[in-house]
Each structure stands twice: as C-alpha cells, then as structure tokens.
Write a structure and sequence with these properties.
This is Glycosyl hydrolase family 12. Keywords: Carbohydrate metabolism, Glycosidase, Hydrolase, Polysaccharide degradation, Signal. One of its GO terms (biological process) is polysaccharide catabolic process. The protein has a single domain, classed as Sandwich (Jelly Rolls). It starts with a helix and ends with a strand. A nine-stranded mixed sheet has the order 2-3-6-14-8-9-12-11-10, covered by helices on one side. By secondary structure, it is mainly β.
C-alpha cells in the first residue's frame, strides 16, 4: 500500500476518534421543567412543584425538576433577615387525621454548607388553620416562630418543639435536635402527638410539602432534593 494512502487512512481514523469524543462530551440533558418565575409551578405524578419566592427583598431563583421526587433550585438571596422563598414539592392528602391508617414520607437532599436556611416539611391542616413544620436540618441564622414547649421523640426523630402563631394560623415547629440530610418520618405520629397536647382536633390534612426555606444564599447556591415521596393509607 502506498505511503500516502496509509497516511490518509491514519488521518481519517484520527478524525473519527475526535468526532466520537465530541459526541461523548456533549451537554447533559436539560431538566424536564424549569422556571425563574417567582411563583412558577409544575404538576407531576400527583404532586405540585413550586418555586414560591414569596418573601420581600428576595433575589433571583431558578427551579428545575426531573420529577416531583427529584428537583432543586439555584438561589441568590441577599444576606438579610426574613425568609425569601420556600421552593417545595407538595402532595395533597385531603383526609382527617383519624381516617388515615398511615402518613409517612422519605427524603434525601444535597445542600450548601453556608447561607441561612432549613430543609423542612410544611404540613397544613384544618383548612390551613394549622401549620406543622418539621425541620430536618438548619444552617445559619434561622429560627422557628413561637416559644419552646418541650423536647420529644416521635415519628422516628427527636425534636425541640416550638408553638406560636404567624398572625394567620397556628404554627407548630419541630426542630430535629441534630441535622440530617436523608431519612423517613412518620407524619401521622407527629399529628397524633399534637392532638394529644390539645393543640389541634381531628383536622383534615391538606398539603404535605417538603423543600428549602431560604433566608439567604448570597452569591448563588444550589439546593437539591435527590428524592422525596409521601405515602398514605
């Protein structure tokens, strides 16, 4: 075979390798949904994913989701006081506490090591007369509404329990005594405990929400829910 022909074949082979490398190094697939709208929302699998940038003085925030279970935000909120946003995924239950055989949830998150925020459930009951917050972790200058009532082990975790009001509804905040980024929680057990204190009757459970209550994330930070689900019977 002539030397020039061998060189041509070698050149073609080299170009083929380069082309294959370019295909392999292509961009990752985009999320199924994303929005920079303050109140952007997306329905998927019986859940609703919301950006929910509701606080004053908020900066930009973009939410993305592959499903109700796998979603996240990039948020750049200034280092000032007050909650700026609560991006979350929610499932509506629509049943009284006593009619539920079980109400449980699982979660797994990746979160920044700075800023001020909590990874928290927001459970609504009694036509939004009652707000039950389950703080799975917290970072920076954040704290619950109301005053501390007790420390209790219920629903699979040990919590410092706070009781107060935001002016529109009663707020019961359960702050896990140590941070965790994954686990499961028996929500019905927590609701039954609250009923046992006489703080709430046999209310109808509305939405079970889970997300990040963000006060500050200056410079832009990523918050990711790797998995989340709610199961009831």
């Amino acid at each position: 075979m002539p030397r020039w022909w061998k060189a041509a074949i070698a050149a073609i082979a080299a170009l083929t390798v380069v082309a294959a490398g370019l295909v392999t190094a292509g961009p990752a697939h985009a999320a199924a949904w994303s929005s920079s709208d303050k109140f952007g929302s997306w329905s998927n699998g019986g859940y609703t994913v919301r950006n929910d940038v509701w606080g004053s003085g908020a900066g930009p925030q973009t939410i993305w989701a592959n499903s109700y279970s796998n979603w996240g935000v990039w948020a750049d909120h200034p280092n000032t006081g007050g909650v700026k946003a609560y991006p979350h995924s929610a499932r509506n239950i629509g049943r009284s506490i006593s009619s539920l055989g079980s109400l449980t949830s699982n979660f797994n998150v990746s979160r920044p090591g700075s800023g001020s925020y909590s990874s928290t459930y927001d459970v609504w009951a009694g036509n939004n007369a009652y707000e039950i917050m389950l703080w799975m972790n917290k970072q920076g200058a954040v704290g619950p509404i109301g005053s501390k009532q007790t420390t209790v082990s219920v629903g699979g975790h040990t919590w410092d329990v706070y009781r107060g009001s935001n002016g529109a509804n009663a707020v019961f905040s359960f702050l896990r005594t140590s941070n965790t980024d994954s686990g499961s929680v028996d929500i019905k057990a927590v609701l039954n405990w609250i009923r046992g204190q006489g703080w709430m009757g046999d209310a109808v459970v509305g939405e079970v929400q889970f997300g990040f209550e963000i006060t500050s994330s200056a410079g832009g930070m990523n918050f990711t829910t790797n998995s989340y689900s709610v199961t009831s019977s």
